[in-house]
Amino acid sequence: MKDLTDIPALMHDIGARAKAAARDLAFAPSESKRTALIEAAEAVWANRATLIEANAKDLDYGRDKGLSDAMMDRLLLNEDRIRGIVDGLRAVAEQTDPVGAVITEWDRPSGLHIKRVRTPLGVIGVIYESRPNVTADAGALCLKAGNAVILRGGSESFHSSSAIHACLVEGLRKAGLPEDAIQLVPTRDREAVSEMLTMTDFIDVIVPRGGKGLVGLVQREARVPVFAHLEGIVHIYVDADADPVKALNVVLNAKTRRTGICGAAECLLIHKDVVGTIGQGVIKALLKAGVEVRADETLRAIDGTVAASEDDWGCEYLDSIIAAKVVDDLDAAIAHINTYSSNHTDCILTENDRSADRFFERIDSAILMRNASTQFADGGEFGMGAEIGIATGKMHARGPVGAEQLTSFKYIVTGDGTTRT
């Protein structure tokens, strides 16, 4: 039985076992990794009643903590969402193994042949908040890319994550892969997070997935490199040349489909020329859908809106709230976004190709969209099977982080008795 009170010793043990597992995974056969994920998917579905029972304990815990409705929605597991976890595991299983893939190759006049090939990062630490499905997504993607992973889920999802983790371990066992390849920190103690952030001997990269507080903590205190998944301050700009039907459908979906995810729209910008037409229609539809619209002075004329404050620009609500503002033109929208964006996802609604091109050129968010709901800002929707997060930094992993982004590379140099003059 592990001593869960001695956190430094516990984390040292987890780290050492992860590093040993990573050495084996680096050359694990593709078929073994595929088998592990298929078997894990089977285990998740077979144990769905157990997962729902475990999730009920987490929901009780969340209610006792006073979590918002949106956060409770993020925490919830039901049969449909468990089916989504199963589908995600299967999708990752069937993807092409990135390890060993040749990125590029070339010959040199010296006679050398040089290849750059994908290689695992090693050990990845994933620190995440309430969504229990991240346990499956992160475990699957790290395994596919040949990495060992240490998962530290949020205290709210402790029981759900533990139940999902047991299914992943069952998959590893049936595939003959080291069970230490996917480890879940078995305590809610926050000291475990602090330990992970300094485990440079064992962890090669940290991926934080959660709110601004968590990501800020990781960025301040980590001695391990970080793939930052910052908050989703997502903007939608309704251009003068927007199609009214598309605008209505996209904005409603982007805000209301699921308000508690990082791809949910948080700020609506409307060109002054379409305020009385498209703008009015969209805002009235949001209000009818139960969304609180925090509006600037111009839009306050629409019945049911409330006054926006300066704090509403650049706010991630993760709730049925949206900030709304009128802008003079496309460049004013771009300026607003560049001032308040978190570089996650931003969208333009327009039928004008030149406007779209200017928007894409002048905004440097990880994901830019045109005439599409920002709820598509998701690795699964990008064809990655799942994602470990949306990286908003400038490192090699940017946007949805799938298996391929969880690799580095090495050079393979071949000669024929070649010497340098």
From TrEMBL:
Its EC number is 1.2.1.41. Its main location: cytoplasm. Belongs to the gamma-glutamyl phosphate reductase family. This is Gamma-glutamyl phosphate reductase. The keyword Oxidoreductase applies. The keyword Isomerase does not apply. Keywords: Amino-acid biosynthesis, Cytoplasm, NADP, Oxidoreductase, Proline biosynthesis. InterPro entries: Ald_DH/histidinol_DH, Ald_DH_C, Ald_DH_N, Aldehyde_DH_dom, G-glutamylP_reductase_CS, Glu-5-SA_DH, GPR_dom. It is found in: Cytoplasm. It catalyses: L-glutamate 5-semialdehyde + phosphate + NADP(+) = L-glutamyl 5-phosphate + NADPH + H(+). Coiled coil: none annotated. Pfam families: Aldedh (PF00171). Residues 16-291 form the Aldehyde dehydrogenase domain. Catalyzes the NADPH-dependent reduction of L-glutamate 5-phosphate into L-glutamate 5-semialdehyde and phosphate. The product spontaneously undergoes cyclization to form 1-pyrroline-5-carboxylate. Pathway: Amino-acid biosynthesis; L-proline biosynthesis; L-glutamate 5-semialdehyde from L-glutamate: step 2/2. CDD domains: ALDH_F18-19_ProA-GPR. Gene3D superfamilies: Aldehyde Dehydrogenase, Chain A, domain 1, Aldehyde Dehydrogenase, Chain A, domain 2.
